[in-house]
Design a protein that fits this description.
This protein is α/β, with parallel strands linked by helices. Helices cover 39% and strands 18% of the residues. It is built from 28 helices and 26 strands. α3 crosses α17, α5 (108-118) crosses α6 (132-140) and α19 (485-498) runs parallel beside α21 (534-542).
């Protein structure tokens, strides 16, 4: 029976070793898993905001700015549903978000692909859309699901109510629904949303600050050269929705023709809501014989004179024009379209005219009517008279605009409250996710073999474990690579050195090219990286600890004890190395990806199941952002190991080093290219982002990659193609560069800088005191 089990385990082990050493392992898991558990550059824990229309994108701008300001380390992604929405998102959100993409169709295969790619912890739906499959898949992936600025219009509510039996199950999934008004809150509850999860928060658009952006060049030229006495904006005009409805472009142009004789200095800015109506609007202007200019043509006719019309055939510029208007007519209110948002012109203190149809903004409209902050007309016939009276009476116009501005200001604060709610739920979720798809059964089978092999290996190690005379502190993790073990070992060795302790580091010297089974190196001694391996080379050059390099850590430790008699050993990557007894197990947890898919390799990236954390004596949450609380993660870690204290740490970029000179030097200003070969390359990209360095291109290699001269030359050539001669990498990569790297780069006229990374532990004294108390290291007299 043992032979039957042992044979497939041995085959799997040798295949794994061969694939790993050949650099194929990462690509293998990417192809089979294609999911949160596989090796990817995108860390989990992002926030996905689903804003379909242009209006929703504009509403989300302030919210996203709040999220970015409070949590700069959290990746933000925005999906849109239209070409116009994408254009506006790029313009307004491009600098502050990590990605903008078209919303997937509401089918499982499409939604899952997006969830696997960006791996969000929170999915935020803006306004009205109900997406049954997206809601289901987001919850299956373990995401928090929130609806922000939610509303259900008068037009949509009867249809939703008719299908209540279906939508009830869909609306049970969101964790929080923040409705625009009390009426919207009641409608969500009536459709089946749990009452405890729905609240009337208010409208994000109340927080829309008056936009003081640059007026388009052509319109500025019209204003400067023609100097109109009055500016009337017809905003977001719409065609008929039902029989008997007017076409609002026709209504506006008729009103303009009525007003023009008595208002010779009048300028009308006509802004149709839909891009497909721009050409139709121009035809109507031409048919009416009106003087006009078209924004997109960006030039004025020589005979253009007041009164005239500017056709605003662009997206995203309307809100910036409200400050120059005297009167604003809001479209969609004469035709039965439910109206458009009043708050943008109101925030600018403009006098607003609307028709009777404001059903989409019923709560806002009711308050504006009650406060006499809007001039409402009953039908199309009244438009010319209403606009004319406001133009002719500056005092009435100013009072109306002042009351509108007061209402817009009074209800601000919704954005801040919504951002706080999103971040609260985001913090409750532990970044996770499992790969789904055709390869999952195969990966699951291989994962079971991996777990079985791990159990057998650990039992063997425990049965043959040895103890050193010197106390041993293990620094390890449960996931494969990228948790920050090397910087943490280096940090602890330096702290022990500062306290008068002599530390030694035991490491296997992964990928070293020396045939010697054991190598002992004194702190600060010069030894080629090919002999020691990259990580051991970092420890040696740091000079704070001796290094013992070898696969058999016990025999290596014995040799170090005989030669140097250290006070403490730090066992690098030792959590699974049970052949050597340790006095303290410190386990590092990556805050960006704490449980690496919640599955062991190759289904996920765990070496052991999460329950193995029960063996730890202390847990250190690495890459912990200062502004985050990690409530959900801390709760889960405490449930796995209630006795171990949990510390928070983050990487601290210390200084850049010029590889040619070996001296600290900051890279020159301007563009730079970046490359790395790390277990978690996203960590380096995130550090560069925090340093406000945006590489012209990035290149990722396998972990512990040994660079060839050819690869280095190609990187330099690629950098030149992008207009830079500066290459950036990590200290670990610098250890793996060819010996002639500086000479090659000199020939290529390129400069290489590597970054020295430190560790900052928030409760440093408590962690060091725990180490000393567990190791029973008494005070040492120096001098």
């Amino acid at each position: 029976m043992c032979r039957v089990i042992a044979f497939p385990l041995l085959v799997f082990y040798f295949v794994y070793r061969s694939a790993r050493d050949a650099g194929y392992l990462r690509r293998f898991t990417e192809r089979l898993g294609s999911g949160p558990g596989s090796f990817q550059a995108t860390p989990p824990g992002s926030i996905w905001l689903h804003a379909v229309s242009v209006g929703e994108v504009i509403s989300a701008a302030g919210l996203i700015a709040q999220l970015r300001e409070h949590s700069p380390s959290v990746p933000l992604y925005v999906s849109v549903g239209t070409v116009a929405g994408r254009g506006v998102a790029r313009e307004k959100l491009g600098p502050i978000v990590d990605g903008i993409f078209y919303a997937p169709i509401d089918y499982a295969f499409a939604v899952r692909r997006v969830l696997r790619r960006i791996r969000p912890s929170a999915v935020v739906i803006l306004e009205t859309e109900i997406w049954p499959v997206l809601y289901r898949e987001a919850k299956r992936a373990g995401c928090a699901l929130l609806i922000v600025n939610g509303r259900i219009s008068d037009r949509a509510f009867p249809s939703y109510r008719r299908w209540r039996f279906f939508f009830r199950h869909v609306l049970e999934r969101p964790d929080s629904i923040m409705a625009q008004s009390e009426q919207d809150r009641k409608r969500y509850v009536e459709l089946g949303a749990p009452e405890a999860r729905v609240r009337a928060l208010g409208n994000l658009k109340y927080d829309a600050a008056p936009i003081r952006g640059e007026v388009p060049k052509l319109i500025r030229k019209v204003l400067d050269e023609l100097d109109p006495s009055a500016v009337w904006i017809a905003a977001s005009t719409m065609p008929a929705a039902e029989p008997g409805d007017p076409d609002e472009d026709d209504v506006v142009l008729r009103a303009f023709e009525e007003l023009a004789p008595s208002h010779p200095g009048l300028l009308l800015i006509l802004a149709p809501r839909r891009p497909e109506r721009f050409d139709t609007a121009e035809e109507k202007l031409r048919a009416a014989g009106l003087r006009y200019a078209r924004r997109s043509r960006n030039k004025l006719k020589s005979d253009l004179a007041l009164p005239c019309v500017v056709l605003l055939d662009s997206i995203g510029e309307l809100a910036g024009l409200f400050p120059v208007a005297d009167v604003v007519f809001m479209g969609g209110t004469l035709a039965r379209r439910g109206g458009h948002n009043l708050l943008e012109p109101a925030a600018c203190g403009r006098a607003i005219v609307t028709g009777p149809h404001l059903e989409n903004f019923a709560a806002i409209a009711a308050e504006f009517r009650e406060r006499h902050a809007v001039r409402e007309i009953a039908d199309a016939v009244e438009l010319a008279d209403a606009v004319g009276r406001l133009i002719d009476n500056p005092k009435t116009r100013q009072d109306l605009g002042a009351r509108a501005a007061e209402l817009a200001v009074r209800h601000r604060g919704v954005t801040r409250a919504a951002a706080a709610e999103i971040l609260k739920w985001h913090d409750q979720v532990v970044p996770s996710g499992h790969p789904r798809g055709l390869a999952m059964p195969l990966l699951w089978c291989l994962a079971q073999i991996w777990k079985l092999a791990g159990k057998i290996g650990q039992r063997w190690d425990l049965a043959h474990a040895h103890r050193l005379q010197t106390p041993v502190v293990s620094i390890g993790g449960i996931s494969m690579g990228g948790a920050g073990k090397t910087p943490m070992v280096e940090y602890l060795a330096e702290r022990m050195y500062e306290r008068g302790r002599q530390a030694a580091i035991l490491t296997r010297g992964y990928r070293r090219r020396s045939i010697e089974p054991t190598i002992i190196v004194e702190a600060g001694e010069t030894v080629p990286a090919s002999v020691t391996g990259d990580e051991a080379q970092i420890y040696i050059r740091d000079g704070h600890a001796h290094a013992g390099i070898g696969a058999d850590r016990w025999s290596t430790g014995r040799m170090v004890e005989e030669i140097y008699r250290p006070d403490v050993f730090f066992l690098d990557d030792g959590f699974q190395h049970r052949q050597l007894d340790r006095d303290l197990d410190v386990v590092l947890i990556d805050a960006l990806n704490p449980f690496a898919g919640h599955a062991v390799f190759p289904l996920g990236r765990l070496r052991e199941p999460p329950r193995a954390l029960a063996r730890a004596d202390a847990l250190v949450l690495m890459r912990a952002a200062v502004e985050r609380e990690y409530a959900g993660l801390l709760r889960e870690l405490s449930s796995l190991n209630p006795r171990a204290p949990i510390f928070r740490a983050r990487f601290d970029p210390r200084y850049w080093v010029n590889h040619r000179t070996g001296q600290p030097a900051h890279p020159p200003e301007g563009g730079a290219a970046a490359f790395c070969g790390l277990g978690n390359p996203a960590s380096f990209w995130g550090i560069l982002k925090g340093l406000r360095i945006q590489p012209v291109f990035t290149w990722t290699f396998d972990d512990h990659h040994s660079y060839s001269c050819t690869e280095l030359q190609r990187l330099a050539a690629q950098a030149r193609m992008h207009g830079t001669s500066v290459l950036l990498c990590t200290e670990k990569d610098a250890m793996n560069l060819p010996e002639r790297a500086a000479e090659l780069l000199l020939d290529e006229s390129a400069e290489l800088y590597w970054l020295k990374i430190g560790v900052h532990v928030e409760e440093e004294e408590a962690l060091l005191a725990l180490i000393e108390s567990k190791l029973a290291i008494g005070p040492r007299v120096t001098g």
